[in-house]
Automatic annotation (TrEMBL):
InterPro entries: Plipid/glycerol_acylTrfase. GO terms for molecular function: acyltransferase activity. Residues 111-234 form the Phospholipid/glycerol acyltransferase domain. It holds the Pfam family Acyltransferase. GO terms for cellular component: membrane. Signal peptide: none annotated. The keyword Transmembrane helix applies. This is Novel protein containing acetyltransferase domain. The chain crosses the membrane at residues 42-71. Keywords: Membrane, Transferase, Transmembrane, Transmembrane helix. SUPFAM superfamilies: Glycerol-3-phosphate (1)-acyltransferase.
């Protein structure tokens, strides 16, 4: 203790804070701190140009993709003019659909099979597997708008309607949160309606095994029966490889089950191949119960998964499929 005081007191001009800094540097054994700083400065001088060399090409690639996206929009310019001449909201809807369709083409090489199963007019209930982020469903909605001229209404989770600023977008694309009466009303009005029985639970806690997490939900089947409409099963290949969640960790599962708050981290955005498959419609049958119809729909989606998805999913394999030109509709 005496040595420490002597170290700090020989020169009265040295402040107490300076003394502490001096002792701290000695404690870290950085007596040549200036040499270390010079070394760091040298490393920055050497590596900064290398970092710039690697970053600049990324901006060039981004610019090229934005250029392709512009060309995609330009290709649809006449359709957009026509849409805006009918209604400003129709024009806005088609513009957003064009942008999403361009993103789907560029980033995921998106393909849609079975679009002929979607009626040109009249109602149908589309039931789909829910990925960690349902970007495949957004791409599907965009394709239906551009190629069928129809807007597919959707059933969304309640938390979507609590996100600030989302309401105009939800209204534009006909997103509702139920109840069953509203779903039946949308269908009897002649609209297409899409629902994922697994919802947020399936999004967060399913995994690359593509397990359906519907529990005992049969409400969607009862809606189809009440509205007397067909059910069209839908599945997107590699949707779990595009985005994945950390729902396998017990803490996030506990938080969701306890508070119903979807605080599960999601990671990814990998440019894997996406192919959406629409199965054959399950026609309305007045003699079938909601439980039976729900099971029949579940089997139909299981069949699409078994036919078009290698389980467990693999991100690297899904990336390689971007270069596979063979049509995967078997």
């Amino acid at each position: 203790m005496q040595e420490q005081n002597e170290t700090c007191t020989p020169d009265p001009s040295i402040t107490y804070l300076t003394c502490l800094m001096h002792l701290f540097v000695e404690w870290l054994e950085l007596e040549n701190l200036e040499d270390y700083l010079n070394y760091v400065d040298y490393l920055l001088w050497v590596f900064t140009p290398l970092i710039i060399v690697f970053i600049l090409p990324v901006f060039i690639v981004i610019f090229l993709y934005l250029s392709i996206l512009f060309l995609h929009v330009y290709k649809h310019k006449n359709e957009l003019k026509e849409a805006y001449s009918n209604s400003i909201w129709d024009g806005a809807r088609k513009t957003l659909a064009t942008l999403w369709d361009g993103h789907a083409t560029i980033w995921h090489g998106y393909e849609l099979y079975g679009l002929e199963n979607i009626p040109d007019d009249g109602p149908a209930l589309i039931v789909y597997y829910h990925g960690a982020l349902p970007v495949d469903y957004y791409y599907f909605v965009a394709k239906v708008i551009l190629r069928k001229g129809r807007t597919c209404h959707s059933v969304g989770d309640h938390f979507l309607f609590k996100i600030p600023g989302f309401k105009p977008l939800l209204d534009l694309f006909g997103v509702i949160h139920g109840p069953k009466e509203e779903c039946v009303k949308a269908l009897t009005s002649g609209h297409l309606l899409a629902v994922s029985p697994g919802g947020v639970r399936e999004a967060l806690f399913s995994d690359e095994s593509y397990t359906l997490m519907w529990g005992k939900r049969t409400g969607f089947a009862q809606v189809a029966i009440d509205a007397k409409v067909p059910i069209i099963p839908m599945f997107t290949q590699n949707v779990r490889e595009g985005f994945r969640s950390l729902g396998g960790l017990w803490l996030f599962r506990w938080i969701y089950e306890r508070f119903k708050i979807p605080l599960v981290p999601i990671y990814g955005g990998f440019p894997v191949k996406f192919r959406t498959y629409l199965g054959d419609p399950i026609q309305y049958d007045p003699n079938i119960t909601a439980v039976e119809l729900a099971q029949k729909t579940k089997c139909a989606i299981h069949s699409l998964i078994e036919k078009h998805q290698k389980v467990p999913g693999n991100i690297f394999r899904a990336l390689l499929e971007r270069f596979d030109r063979r049509q995967k509709e078997e």
